[in-house]
Q: What sequence folds into this?
């Protein structure tokens, strides 16, 4: 009989996840004990938990010399790449809570449970950033997805919300199936679940159809999660039907988690499979951005438009992976920078949509008409987000695109440069529908003639302030790249 | 004082308007007078710093960048906060510093519908910073950021304060320009990688392109990307179609800034970036640029003859005039490029003036339809004379500024740079010369129909029609004086530009031999 030896655990490195876990338990207990009386504090309480978890993230970041901290024989790694993304998820989670608080209370939905599920999902994302092992990746993926299936159907008396939840779950489960199948093939080829070992095994072994299938299926599994074309069909319906704060959560946090998983697998396990992965990613990226942007042109509902715009943006984020073979570190850097800035500008845009819907009770783009006259501050904020999404300096979105362009043109390779041109043309197409919203807000009159000033709850003001600040500061100073320098891959061959 | 100018001068000049924007944010919208004052003070402060810089500029060394600021900005990509002025940028900086305060003075009584002086002036100030920054940036990334910053305020200016077709014009302007810049950015980045120099510094890149020996094919491709970016901004035929719409729909102030300064961002980009960095590429492209330029000259002129709207006519004349500027640049000679820079300044002053007058006419008559106008010299004689002088300047009458932008360009086409086909450029020369005749035709026709004769019945007894008012005088007199002074003393500009331009010209001379 084998004696069980507890593996060494670096508690400090594991602290962010533990805090979120225990805080989630605390929130549940508070809910059980105080029932209805605690309803009002559930949101703030959850938010505080996310901020508390930021403390170990910052202290770990501060001890940069000790990084990377490797746990569980290399299955779990805390390096500055993981920490940066953990910070991103925690702050996004905090903003999502800010967005939800009024929506949940005023809509008379169950809210305590909603926050607990958000916490669970964020926990899954935190795990995902450090997961360097097929099993932990899969567990993280399910931990972050299953609460989201529930939350998508949260407005349970609304047919559309039920459709959203059901569609999302069916597609998600289907994707998980494909992913698991791919993973099992990889395990079969490498006889190990750790990404680094798989990478080594695939590099040594010859390429068999089985390996090819394993690699492609794994990527396709995540392609569902990041809503890449042609695996995007769930996104618009789910986004439209789900409660709007949850839509923001899906469009930003959940999509980012999908990208993190994709990055981990592609960079750490498929580093030597670039001949196979690059062309696949090229097609995936080009199709995703082109289809997303073209379909977004025709949308009249703001949430659906943002859904398709998010698909377009996912295409830009996939683009660096089409040339990662010779420069994995730069590709990783470009994607992470894009994820950071995308989170700020897209969350901000959703915050404005939620604010606008409080007055107009509508999701139509036309309902934004004349907002300059009754909410100039919000109009300015939305304008900043829209231009940032279009990629115009001096907004953050420009630098996001800049880094994508930079990695694509590196080396003046034909396919990379061609993809850069595809991105360029797509940016112009996308600018048209982003500016269409700006046009409504600035140039056209209000639809119902009601121009009484808008009253905005403080939580939503805070959410907009945080996202505007990030979008503008990254835009004007170009600061992000200084943090997003990841030596781990740069040193690897 | 001088040490301040050396270290902070340019930065203060570029960002003074933004400080004004910050101040205006905290003033409520009702305080219109205060907003106008702040905006004027911000631009005047910027202009005073600019004048001090001009006064301390070493004119003996105008080929050398002066008041250089070079600080680290984004280290990872070695993009630097690098600014400087030399003889090529100096005239354009001066033009910008002059025009924008005048536009704000003009706005004192002419905030276009639907009002909101606060937003309007804030956008004007942001534009100001963007344009100044573009002319002094010495780093490609910084240049690109400033170049794009200009888009946003102009988009809103056209869209909110524009005419009936403003929505269409605004989005068209935005998308066209964005399309060009996206390709330009790809070119910039490819340049960064190809030279292997890990720098975006314009001067250093120019040296690296030669020492690394970029092939002609590569240079032609990269030049193509830049051509899209700059050429759309100029705008060159066949990318000019956004211009008549934008000009016609923009409020007067927007049209003036567009014509006077913004179009020059494109031509400046050619002279400052595309030509020096990619000389072999430029040489391959030059015949085609020349061709598009002369097509623009003739097409613009014919377009003018077909217009029924005064503002649209002036807009098409811009296409023709920018054609001369681009033809000058395409000759790749000292002579041609000097003339092109002069043409930029002259066109800025003259066409800016024309749009000012058109705006004032619109304000009085509420229409710009040429056939409904007439007899301006009777109803508003001073304004009629101002229109007269300006159209004369625009058609290139010797003794006024417009002449020195056109005539030397035509001369320069006689003998283009050594590597270019002389016969071809002589054909262009003839076509461009025909263009001047057409220009005289449409401009005189415009003057005749609007200023001469008797007022039409419709407006004969309209009490709203009055002569030039005080703010108009303040805004217009400096420009008119400069149009005359530059006409008589063109060396004011040629002396400044000649040295830096000859450095560019030398490169092509060496290439040709």
A:
């Amino acid at each position: 009989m084998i004696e069980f030896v507890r593996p060494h655990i670096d508690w400090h490195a594991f602290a962010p996840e533990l805090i979120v876990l225990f805080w989630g338990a605390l929130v549940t207990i508070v809910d059980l004990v105080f029932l209805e009386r605690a309803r009002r504090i559930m949101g703030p309480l959850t938010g505080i938990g996310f901020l508390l978890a930021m403390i170990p993230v910052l202290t770990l970041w501060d001890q940069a010399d000790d990084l990377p901290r490797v746990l569980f024989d290399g299955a779990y790694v805390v390096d500055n790449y993981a920490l940066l993304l953990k910070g991103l998820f925690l702050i996004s989670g905090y903003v999502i809570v800010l967005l939800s608080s009024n929506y949940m209370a005023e809509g008379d939905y169950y809210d305590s449970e909603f926050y607990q599920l958000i916490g669970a999902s964020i926990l899954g994302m935190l795990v995902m950033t450090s997961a360097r092992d097929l099993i932990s990746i899969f567990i993280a993926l399910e931990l972050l997805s299953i609460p989201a299936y529930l939350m998508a159907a949260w407005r349970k008396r609304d047919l559309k919300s039920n459709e959203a939840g059901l569609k999302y779950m069916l597609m998600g489960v289907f994707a998980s199936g494909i992913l698991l199948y791919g993973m099992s093939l990889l395990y079969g080829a490498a006889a190990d679940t750790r990404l680094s070992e798989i990478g080594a095994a695939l590099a040594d072994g010859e390429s068999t159809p089985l390996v090819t299938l394993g690699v492609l299926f794994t990527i396709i599994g995540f392609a569902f999660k990041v809503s890449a074309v042609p695996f995007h069909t769930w996104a618009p319906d789910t986004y439209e039907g789900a409660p709007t704060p949850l839509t923001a959560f899906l469009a930003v946090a959940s999509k980012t988690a999908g990208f993190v998983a994709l990055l981990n697998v592609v960079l750490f396990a498929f580093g030597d499979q670039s001949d196979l992965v690059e062309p696949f990613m090229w097609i995936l990226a080009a199709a995703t951005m082109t289809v997303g942007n073209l379909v977004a042109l025709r949308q009249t509902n703001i949430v659906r438009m943002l859904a398709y715009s998010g698909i377009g943006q996912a295409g830009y984020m996939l683009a660096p992976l089409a040339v990662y073979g010779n420069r994995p570190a730069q590709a990783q850097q470009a994607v992470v920078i894009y994820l950071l800035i995308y989170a700020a500008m897209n969350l901000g845009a959703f915050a404005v949509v939620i604010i606008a819907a409080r007055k107009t009770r509508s999701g139509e783009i036309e309902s934004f008409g004349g907002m300059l006259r009754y909410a100039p501050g919000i109009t300015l904020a939305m304008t900043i987000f829209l231009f940032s999404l279009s990629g115009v300096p001096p907004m953050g979105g420009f630098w996001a695109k800049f880094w994508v362009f930079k990695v694509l043109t590196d080396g003046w390779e034909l396919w990379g440069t061609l993809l850069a041109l595809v991105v360029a043309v797509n940016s112009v197409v996308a600018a048209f529908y982003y500016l269409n919203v700006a046009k409504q807000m600035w140039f056209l009159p209000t639809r119902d003639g009601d121009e009484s000033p808008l009253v905005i709850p403080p939580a939503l003001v805070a959410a907009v302030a945080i996202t505007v600040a990030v979008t503008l500061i990254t835009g004007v100073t170009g600061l992000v790249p200084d943090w997003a320098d990841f030596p781990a891959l740069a040193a690897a061959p | 004082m001088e040490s301040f100018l050396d270290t902070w001068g340019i930065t203060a000049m570029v960002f003074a308007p933004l400080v004004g924007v910050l101040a205006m944010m905290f003033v409520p919208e009702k305080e219109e007078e205060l907003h106008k004052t702040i905006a004027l003070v911000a631009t005047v402060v910027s202009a005073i710093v600019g004048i001090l810089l001009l006064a301390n500029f070493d004119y003996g060394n105008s080929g050398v960048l002066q008041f250089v600021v070079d600080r680290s900005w984004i280290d990872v990509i070695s993009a630097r906060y690098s600014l400087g002025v030399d003889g090529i940028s100096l005239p354009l900086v001066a033009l910008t510093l002059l025009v924008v305060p005048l536009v704000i003075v003009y706005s004192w009584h002419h905030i276009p519908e639907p009002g909101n002086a606060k937003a309007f002036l804030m956008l004007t100030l942001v534009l100001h910073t963007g344009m100044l920054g573009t002319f002094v940036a010495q780093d490609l990334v910084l240049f690109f950021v400033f170049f794009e910053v200009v888009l946003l305020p102009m988009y809103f200016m056209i869209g909110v304060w524009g005419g009936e077709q403003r929505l269409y014009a605004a989005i068209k302007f935005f998308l066209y320009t964005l399309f060009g810049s996206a390709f330009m950015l790809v070119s910039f980045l490819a340049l960064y990688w190809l030279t292997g120099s890990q720098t975006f510094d314009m001067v250093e890149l120019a040296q690296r392109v030669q020492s690394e020996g970029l092939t002609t094919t590569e240079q032609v491709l990269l030049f193509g990307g830049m051509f899209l970016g700059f050429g759309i901004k100029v705008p060159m035929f066949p990318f000019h179609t956004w211009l008549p719409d934008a000009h016609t729909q923009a409020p007067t102030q927007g049209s003036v800034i567009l014509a006077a300064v913004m179009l020059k961002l494109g031509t400046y980009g050619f002279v400052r970036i595309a030509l020096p960095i990619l000389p072999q590429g430029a040489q391959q492209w030059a015949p085609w640029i020349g061709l598009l330029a002369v097509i623009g000259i003739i097409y613009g002129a014919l377009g003018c003859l077909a217009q029924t709207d005064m503002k649209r006519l002036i807009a098409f004349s811009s296409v023709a005039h920018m054609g001369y500027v681009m033809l000058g640049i395409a000759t790749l000679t000292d002579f041609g490029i000097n003339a092109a820079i002069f043409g930029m300044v002259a066109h800025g002053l003259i066409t800016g003036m024309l749009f000012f007058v058109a705006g004032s006419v619109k304000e009085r008559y509420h229409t710009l339809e040429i056939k409904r106008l007439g007899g301006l010299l009777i109803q508003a004689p001073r304004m009629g004379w101002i229109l007269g002088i300006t159209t004369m300047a625009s058609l290139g009458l010797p003794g006024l500024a417009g002449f020195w932008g056109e005539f030397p360009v035509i001369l320069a086409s006689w003998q283009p740079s050594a590597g270019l086909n002389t016969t071809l450029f002589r054909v262009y020369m003839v076509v461009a010369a025909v263009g001047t005749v057409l220009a005289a035709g449409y401009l005189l026709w415009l003057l005749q129909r609007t200023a001469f004769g008797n007022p039409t019945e419709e407006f004969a007894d309209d009490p709203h029609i009055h002569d030039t008012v005080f703010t108009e005088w303040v805004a217009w007199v400096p420009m008119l004086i400069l149009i005359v002074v530059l006409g008589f003393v063109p060396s004011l500009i040629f002396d400044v530009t000649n040295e830096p331009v000859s450095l560019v010209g030398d490169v092509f001379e060496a290439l040709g031999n």
Observations:
- Chain A touches chain B at residues 387, 390, 392-394, 398, 402, 405-406, 409-412, 417, 420-421, 423-425, 427-428, 431-432, 435-436, 439, 442-443, 478, 481-482, 485 (CB under 8 Å).
- The mean pLDDT of chain A is 88.
- The two ends of chain A are 41 Å apart (CA to CA).
